[in-house]
Amino acid sequence: MTAPLRTLPVETLTEAQAAEELAALAQAIAEADLAYHQQDAPVITDAEYDALRRRNAAIEARFPALKRADSPSDAAPGAAPAAGFAKARHGTPMLSLDNAFAPEDFAEFTRSIRRFLRLDEAEVLRFVAEPKIDGLSVNLTYENGIFVRGATRGDGTEGEDITRNLETFSEAILPRRLAAPFPAQIEIRGEVFMTKADFLAFREEQARLAEEREQRRARGEKVGPEIRIPANPRNAAAGSLRQLDPEITRSRPLRLFAYAQGESSTPVAETHWDYLARLRGWGFAVNPLSRLLADEHDAAAFQAEMGGQRAGLAYDIDGIVYKLDRLDWQGRLGFVGRAPRWAIAWKFPAEQATTRLLDIQIQVGRTGALTPRAVMEPVNVGGVMVQHATLHNEDEVARKDVRIGDTVILQRAGDVIPQIVGVVAEKRPEGALPFAFPTTCPACGSHAVRPEGEVVRRCTGGLVCPAQTVERLKHFVSRNALDIEGLGEENILRLHEEGLVKSPADIFRLHRHAERMRGWEGWGKGAKSSKKVENLLAAIEARRGPPLERFIFALGIRRIGEQNAKLLARHYHSLAAWREKMLAATTIGSEAREELGSIQGIGPAIATELAEFFAEAHNRAALEDLAGEVAPQDAEDFSASDSPFAGKVVVFTGTLEKTSRDEAEAVAERLGAKVTKSVSKKTDFVVVGADAGSKAKKAAELGLRVLSEGEWREMAGL
Ligand code: IVH
């Protein structure tokens, strides 16, 4: 992707240029979002991303009329955590470092120091060597020994004020008060990072949350902002630190090593090594692997030593920073451009390796998402044996054109998770064919479809796909579905593993296996309750006649959440009628399909999901099987027009006692009301809970019908 960031100042843009650029920016940001959120492979850096969004906002501010319907500024919060922070200017600039890659580079670095300071060979150059962690550098300002402000590096001169987020750090790594003596004013710099283990756990948790969110979304339920799955510890640390809500930062496993000084009202040390000791004395964590080298010739050995330890360290390092120890010399050397003359980052070689791609396996996720995974001949990449790598999705496989038999280049550059960066074209075996992404599910053979505009291909096998079974079974018995007590995840897993429950209908045949279950560890004798099996079977029996809407919801059809299940139940009344009409609706253009799509609140997209579900013979069979075990109660005839709230505008305000306000609003909507947030002349009813404020007052002023919670419940028939 080429970033469409222009150099033209926003003030000078013509309307045509602005419109063109807004279009390009919307596309670039959407691409970056997609790469970040869904493909888990950022195409631009966080800073570039923020710059794109800032530029977009600036152009929109100048040309409000040109703001696009798909404007990135309206996108979910969390996408650009940078927006919304105050600016913070650094006392002295936060510099970057020049790189060395080989001993000659380091030798040239020391030569240039000698040249600059006019030192001869006899003069010893002592260096402090510090592991270079790839995290996020921060600037911490202390006034009279008290932590007053923390900022990101930003452009080096000015960063974002993230004080509130840094205040969530423990005292053990970020002291709020320096132990005396200290200068009246001092800036301390360091790196915020995540360990590899914390990152992997965090990433897993984020992936789990994203999956859950996707499931809710698929059921047509409301979901919060998209969940980012960070690609590497650096992204995870950066994203965690730049949250607008400090409580999110608090929940993230962030660490901090202090390593440099910015502005200081009085000098605090004569050497960098002593400065690090002062940092420790003030209460900061300083990387314990930092070392004072007696002279420049020790650098290569230290580099090799750390290179050897690298893979075993708790955090990722991409090189070693060598800093001239004498601070008076540092001062004299100053900097060129943005990098100091007195320090250098000697990078480790990129963690790359080549190996042969043996296979591309397709994994089926809990929602049926098909994910390609590379299986390779095991190879050592930067000290870690690797034989699997994700290829993310269908498009990624095509873009990289990886073929089975290819020699692929694997990389672990700053990323704990290895990635295939490309193929060695010359080594492609003759006759290797482009990978044909399957259009059927490898787990169950059902069709795998990829809706237009989506990157993920999904199995439509639903109820019968073993990869999705456990997750779907969990949904089937969950509280808002069939609500079978005693069937938690652990028990479902056990029953599934033992082969007793493969489909929802099997749950209702469990009584046949009571004896066997009683023999299981923790189920029979060893169980907390000796009646575990009896209780479970009784709970199952109690659910043989669920309300039709719960039954439909329990099937876990994509986009059929509770609301839609209710609409379907009320429209078709009985299971038999619903099934018959759904079968007929699999034919596009049929009367049944038209009818389905025209149900208020359903619409053609959801109609398609239902039709796809019923088009699969497996799903039909599983449903038939289930219908043989349970007899859902017919849904009552429902007519919103019977309700006093039908067609009325209703506002809820204050705290309700019996239910949440969200639930009350949903009930009102079901009764045909239009629920709004603000009170106006058009409002018909204002339902007032405890501590209602200005809305209740306004309702009284406008002479609107005000209802207490009790009155509302009575009228709503609750
Ligand atoms: S010193 C002038 N020390 O590397 C000194 N930086 O490329 C500049 N970094 O932005 C920083 N570990 O984020 C320094 N021990 C260390 C470091 C370190 C990591 C990062 C830091 C900085 C970047 C410069």
Outline the fold blueprint:
Blueprint: H1 15-38, H2 46-62, E1 87-89, E2 99-100, H3 103-117, E3 127-133, E4 136-143, E5 146-152, E6 158-160, H4 163-166, E7 185-193, H5 196-218, H6 233-241, H7 246-250, E8 255-264, H8 272-282, E9 291-293, H9 299-309, E10 317-324, H10 327-333, E11 335-336, E12 339-340, E13 343-347, E14 352-364, E15 370-381, E16 384-390, H11 394-400, E17 407-411, E18 419-423, E19 448-449, E20 458-459, H12 466-477, H13 489-497, H14 504-507, H15 514-518, H16 532-541, H17 548-554, H18 562-572, H19 575-585, H20 591-597, H21 603-615, H22 617-627, E21 649-653, H23 661-670, E22 674-676, E23 685-688, H24 694-702, E24 705-708, H25 709-716
Parallel strand pairs: 2-13, 21-22, 21-23, 23-24
Antiparallel strand pairs: 1-6, 3-9, 3-10, 4-5, 4-7, 7-8, 10-13, 11-12, 14-15, 14-17, 15-16, 17-18, 19-20
Helix pairs in contact: 1-2, 17-18, 19-20, 20-21
The structure holds 2-(butylsulfanyl)adenosine.
Written account of the structure:
- Among the domains are: 98-196 and 235-336, 2-Layer Sandwich (D-amino Acid Aminotransferase, Chain A, domain 1); 465-502 and 509-541, Orthogonal Bundle (DNA polymerase, domain 1), CATH 1.10.150; 548-627, DNA polymerase, domain 1 (Orthogonal Bundle), CATH 1.10.150.20; 640-716, Rossmann fold (3-Layer(aba) Sandwich).
- Mean pLDDT is 87; it is low at 1-5 and 76-82.
- It is globular.
- The chain contains 25 helices and 24 strands.
- 2-(butylsulfanyl)adenosine is lined by residues 95-97, 130, 132-133, 137, 153, 191, 259-260, 321, 340, 343, 345.
